[in-house]
Amino acid sequence: MEAFGNRLRMLRLEAKLSASKLGEIIGVSDASIINWENNVNDIKSEYLVKLAKFFGVSTDYLLGLED
User: Fold this and answer.
1) Range of 21's domain?
2) Which of 46, 59, 61, 62 is the most buried (most CB within 10 A)?
3) DSSP string, 5-28
4) What DSSP character marks residue 27?
């Protein structure tokens, strides 16, 4: 899951979004975003899909299964 956290952080920073703002957009707390980025918690599939759609990437990309 390390790739996921790194890719999420990279995409969020490239979009110039705070963890709080991204959390608002997908319906979770800023703590959830930070915990995902730091590989503390696993992400539920519904939020993985929301993030992929928001950033215009595949879930496989977010999970580090493809480049």
Assistant:
1) 2-63
2) 62
3) HHHHHHHHHHTT--HHHHHHHHTS
4) T
Digits of tens for pLDDT over the chain (67 positions)? Answer: 689 999 999 999 999 999 999 999 999 999 999 999 999 999 999 999 999 999 999 999 999 998 8
Torsion angle of C-alpha atoms 61, 57, 31, 41, degrees rounded to 10? -30
CATH of the domain at 7: 1.10.260.40
Backbone angles phi, psi at 33, to 5 degrees: -60, -50
Quote the pTM value.
0.92
Instruction: Give the containing element (helix H, strand E) for 53.
Output: helix 45-55
